[in-house]
Structures are given as C-alpha cells and as structure tokens.
C-alpha cells in the first residue's frame, strides 16, 4: 500500500474551514480535527506583530495521486508558504485494517490498491485507531492482550462521517478519539486484528485502524534489551 499517506495540516484555528473546504475540492471528504497551541515565545510574536493563537491540527488519508494538486493549491490558494500561515506534511501508510475502511477514507480520491509496503529496517509501527468517544478502554485492552504497551488518546471531531454508511454499513458519530499506539513490527498484524475484533465496526466503538512506519525510536530501550536477551 505504497501510494497512501496520512496528511497532517497545522494552521490557525480560524482558518480551519478554509482548509477543510480545500480538502473537499480535492476529494478529501473524511478528516479529523483537533486543537493545539503554538510555542513561539512572546518576544518573537511581538517582533512579527502577531498574537499567540490556538492552532487547528487536521488529519486525513490522502493518495499519491491527490497530493501533488493539493500541495500546489496549499501554496497558491492558502499561501501556506507565507510564515505563520501553517504547515502540511504527509507520512506513508504501511497498512490499513479492512478494504471497507480504505474505501471510506478515500471515497472521492483515485487510489490503486497495491501490496503492503514496508520500509527497510523498520522495527516499530505507529498504530492509529479512529473510534467513537468513550471506548479507549476496550481498544487498549485488546491491544495489550495482543502484545502492545500503552497508548495516547487525542480527542477530535470528524467530518464526512455521514458517508460511512455507504461503505461501512453503519452510521458514525462526529465526536472521535484518535488512539496512538507504538508496537513492534512483528506484533503489528496481531494487534490490529485484536482491535478490529474487539472494537471494530461491528461493535459500539466502530474503530478503524491503520499503521504508519516508525524509522527511529527513543524510550524503548528496555524493551529492546529484553528482546535481545531472550
């Protein structure tokens, strides 16, 4: 699946609707959004004549065919290259749990299904689980039972959820939780399968799960040492 990417856009919160409208122009109808805060020091903001503002963080699945045109319009229409406007970047997706979920996330984009891709020497994967709010416990119970450690939860609001019934056969609420879990590459399939079985589309959690390759880590040394000593 080497032509699928996770798109992350960070901009001022008041620009959220404009960026989402541009997404939709390019067929990106399903996305998540949450809020954050910039870290620029006050002296820098004063020098630039800016005020500290809340940031919007937007997430979406995007295909290789969609990205070039979107990238061009981010620069031309949104002027994203102007300092202080925002930033957008893509991360390759290595696998996704289920064809229906893939079709839902890329409904209006051109996508040719290919074999799952793996970056060389990738020992870990980042699992991203999109689920209805209030079901983190069942997701993490399933993940831990299959060999995962802890996870991190981000509360977000989804757009384009009304199209879920066409592909998934279920309706989805707009309030979402995005759960991030780092797992060993060798455990990825087992953990993804466990989450889909215990918290997937047939459950109240209505979880969708996919993975991103991790090319470097810090903070997992003890786990690596234990693995070397077995």
Would you kindly provide a written description of the structure presented here, covering whatever features stand out?
The chain is an alpha+beta fold. It is 30% helix and 30% strand. The protein is built from 8 helices and 9 strands. Strands 4-1-3-2-7-8-6-9-5 form a 9-stranded antiparallel β-sheet. It is globular.
- Average pLDDT confidence is 86
Helical region count? 8
Give helix and strand order, one letter per element, not per position. EHEHEHEEHEHEHEHEH
- The computed structural class is alpha+beta
Quick structural overview:
30% of the residues lie in helices and 30% in strands.
Write the layout of secondary structure elements.
Blueprint lengths: L3 E9 L3 H10 L5 E7 L4 H7 L5 E10 L3 H10 L9 E7 L2 E2 L2 H7 L18 E9 L3 H10 L6 E8 L4 H5 L6 E10 L3 H12 L8 E7 L6 H8 L2
Antiparallel strand pairs: 1-3, 1-4, 2-3, 2-7, 5-9, 6-8, 6-9, 7-8
Task: List its traits.
9-stranded antiparallel sheet; 8 helices; 30% strand; globular; alpha+beta; 230 residues
């Amino acid at each position: 699946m080497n032509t699928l990417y996770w798109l992350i856009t960070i901009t001022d919160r008041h620009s959220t609707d404009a960026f989402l409208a541009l997404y939709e122009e390019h067929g990106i109808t399903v996305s998540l959004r949450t809020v954050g805060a910039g870290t620029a020091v006050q002296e820098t903001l004063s020098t630039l004549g800016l005020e500290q503002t809340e940031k919007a963080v937007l997430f979406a699945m995007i295909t290789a065919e969609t990205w070039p045109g979107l990238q061009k319009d981010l620069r031309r229409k949104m002027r994203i290259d102007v300092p202080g406007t925002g930033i957008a970047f893509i991360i390759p997706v290595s696998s996704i749990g289920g064809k229906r979920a893939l079709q839902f996330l890329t409904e209006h984009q051109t996508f040719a299904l290919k074999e799952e891709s793996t970056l060389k020497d990738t020992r870990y994967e980042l699992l991203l689980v999109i689920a209805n709010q209030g079901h983190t416990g069942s997701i993490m119970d399933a993940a831990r039972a299959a060999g995962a450690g802890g996870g991190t939860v981000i509360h977000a609001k989804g757009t384009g959820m009304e199209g879920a019934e066409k592909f998934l056969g279920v309706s989805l609420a707009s309030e979402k939780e995005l759960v991030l879990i780092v797992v060993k590459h060798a455990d990825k399939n087992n953990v993804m399968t466990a989450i889909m079985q215990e918290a997937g589309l047939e459950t109240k959690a209505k979880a969708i799960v996919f993975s991103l390759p991790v090319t470097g880590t810090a903070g997992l040394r003890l786990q690596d040492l234990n693995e070397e000593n077995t």
